[in-house]
Amino acid sequence: MVQDGREQDVPDARFMASVARREEKGSDVNVASHLLIDVLTEVVAAAVVISNDSDLAYPIAFARDRVPVGLVNPTRGYRAGKLAGNHTDGVGNHWWYQMQPSDWYAHQLPPTIGPRITKPPDW
Fold first, then answer.
1. What DSSP string runs through 38-69?
2. Model's pTM, two decimal places?
3. Nearest Cα to 71, choosing from 104, 37, 44, 35?
4. DSSP letters for 65-107
5. Digits of tens for pLDDT over the chain (123 positions)?
6. How many CB atoms lie within 10 A of CB 28?
7. What does the buried/exposed string (b/e) look like for 39-71 if buried means 16 or more CB atoms within 10 Å of the residue's CB?
């Protein structure tokens, strides 16, 4: 239970935190590595990459020569120019999609999960 400075219980206390960390995690390298491994070992017939990271331009272009690739931009901004291409590049049948707010809203968890987990009203 949360208590105030007088050691009184505060039953409706809310904690808010905002954290911004801008550091390289290597996730683009992991995505690129797995994409190339899957394509080169022929365990996939197509690939979908959810990213707008221009660092993935070369591995995606390489993959497009071997399998159809769908690219989903999860950000609000424009697709990174280096990720552009044509539907007919390589083996062809490639596609692009820009995520919309409605995509996120349509796929939320329910407002209540079990007896104790509830979505905050502001969400």
1. HHHTT--S-EEEE---GGGHHHHHHHHTTS-E
2. 0.69
3. 35
4. TTS-EEEEE-SSSPPPGGG---TTSTT---EEEE--HHHHHTT
5. 677 778 888 888 877 777 777 666 778 899 999 999 999 999 999 999 999 999 999 999 999 999 999 999 998 888 899 999 999 999 999 999 999 989 988 888 888 888 888 888 887
6. 15
7. beeeebeebebebbbebbbebbebbbeebbbeb
Give the DSSP letter of residue 26. S
In this prediction, residue 22 carries a pLDDT of 65
Residue 1 pLDDT: 67
Alpha carbon distance 100, 83 (integer Å): 19
As given in the structure block, the two tokens for residue 96 are 């692009």
List of long-range contacts for 41-48, beta carbons under 8 Å, 24+ apart: 46/70, 46/93, 48/72
Nearest CA among 59, 70, 9 for reference residue 32: 59
